[in-house]
Amino acid sequence: MTTLQRDPYDTPGAHDGPVTLERRDGPYGEVVLRRRGTGAEAVHEIIANGCFLMDTSDGRSERLLVDAALAALPADRAEPAVLIGGLGVGFSLARAAEEPRWGRITVVEREPAVIGWHRAGPLGGISARALADPRAEIVEDDLLGHVRTAPVRYDALCLDIDNGPDWTVTEGNDSLYSPAGLAACRERLTPGGVLAVWSARPSARFERALRNAGFEGVRTEEITVARGVPDVVHLGQRAA
């Protein structure tokens, strides 16, 4: 059941206080959509099981996730197919739809609440045009399950379901970054395909894991943030 309520830490009359727009018990725990500010300055946040996931304040690193994957593919690869793991606030999907070179755009999102906030909620302001793109589809599924069983391959896997390989949202997500999970990602890619993984901080351990899993050209691209360590995108490529 959906519960609409004000966040208990919101101060009445304070424009920058967080307001809970919707709180749902999903298949993997509680997910919350909050808003800070009002009007054009409003920022929406997604919280999962009390853990901040992402907000609409920036989006540069989520866009880099898609751009870096495309840039790593051979320039002559026609209409490459991309799998975006995690719909989030929609920046990565919107970026992919802006690029005419992409062919099939598949988004895998396991939380029905997040999908609903895009299709009939405030996050549609970011994703509505992309969702109307005939190349795009949303699949409600667990990402690792989809990677293991999907009947098709992708030229790029752009994954953003955690705060990073070392900072997972749910315990079960650890298996995605394990040797078996990375092997499944590699097998889901076409030859020369690219795996791109978003992270809130660099991880030398994950770079080693990518190399050990057989990925080539492993590297990390950074986005400087206002405070703290940079957001990054970890990249690896399946052998051609």
Automatic annotation (TrEMBL):
Region (Disordered): 1-22
Keywords recorded for this protein, A-Z: Polyamine biosynthesis
InterPro entries: SAM-dependent_MTases_sf
Protein origin, superkingdom: Bacteria
Keyword Isomerase: no
Keyword flag NADP: no
Name of protein: Spermidine synthase
Source organism (scientific name): Streptomyces roseoverticillatus
